[in-house]
Design brief:
The chain has about 260 residues and is an alpha+beta fold. The protein has six helices and 14 strands.
Length: about 260
């Protein structure tokens, strides 16, 4: 009698560690005949020295796909984006911002961080009188920065601004540094009033960090709701004039560093 055959393939592991395929023929036949078929199958498997746990079929968990390996061409043309965060985010006013120095060109930025991280744009000065070529290096909100070039050749940076919060001077001054902590670093200092083009600019001349004068500019601002919560204090320190850091009206405004500019050339 001819019986229809249903075939199943199960991966099994042999003694040598290689994967094989086991062809199971299940006959739709009376029970005695089916038992003979199974016995014959088990005999063949044992003769082939393939390890098999009878009556137990286990499937290996799906292995995650291996990450794509960059091609040699991608590495050579520097088109890959740097994904590892910078381990050193020190700012030395007048000298460097991390790996960016007075002589770093845009081409070198591309080699350092990958072309996909660079975004060219044109920026204006606070008064809107002049424009400058600039390149933003996108390393995430905490490590990004923008290089403003001296000219269209993009071979020498004039200064670096828009620093993320990870960047800091040797003294620990960074974006978000509070007014109180800034006073600890500088001592008493002068700053311009709020709500104009250069509002909140700190004068370093005559402070403990006067060596950074002309190399580093700091700009502070109040908390977003300070003007509404403390209108009298806020109005007392606005305008194009200088105020002392000891002025009591600053205390309730939540003043902190909002912008750092590092001059390189």
């Amino acid at each position: 009698m001819t019986y229809p055959v249903r075939r199943y393939f199960y991966p099994i592991s042999g003694n040598a560690g290689h994967m094989g395929s086991l062809l199971l023929a299940v006959f739709k036949a009376p029970q005695p005949t089916r038992g003979v078929a199974i016995a014959s199958l088990l005999f063949l498997v044992s003769c082939s020295k393939v390890d098999l746990e009878v009556f137990q079929v286990t499937s290996s968990p799906t292995q995650p796909a291996s990450p794509a390996v960059p091609s040699v061409q991608q590495i050579n043309d520097r088109s890959l984006v740097q994904t590892i965060p910078l381990s050193e985010t020190l700012v030395i006013p007048g000298e460097r911002v991390g790996p960016v120095t007075r002589n770093t060109s845009r081409e070198e930025l591309s080699k350092m961080f990958g072309t996909a991280r660079l975004h060219d744009r044109t920026l204006s000065d606070p008064e809107g009188m002049d424009t400058y070529p600039a390149t933003t290096v996108d390393l995430g909100s905490k490590q990004s920065f923008t290089v403003i070039w001296k000219d269209a050749t993009q071979t020498r940076p004039a200064y670096v601004r828009d620093l993320g919060s990870d960047w800091q001077t040797p003294e620990g001054i960074s974006i978000g540094t509070s007014f109180a902590d800034l006073r600890k670093q500088l001592g008493e200092f002068q700053l311009y009033g709020l709500d104009w083009d250069y509002g909140g600019s700190v004068t370093l001349l005559g402070t403990k960090l006067s060596q950074y004068y002309g190399k580093l500019t700091l700009q502070v601002k109040a908390d977003p709701n300070a003007a509404k919560k403390f209108p009298k204090d806020y109005r007392a320190v606005i305008g194009d004039r200088r105020f002392s850091s000891t002025n009591p009206h600053w205390k309730r405004l939540g003043m902190h560093i909002a912008e750092i500019t590092v001059v390189l050339n």
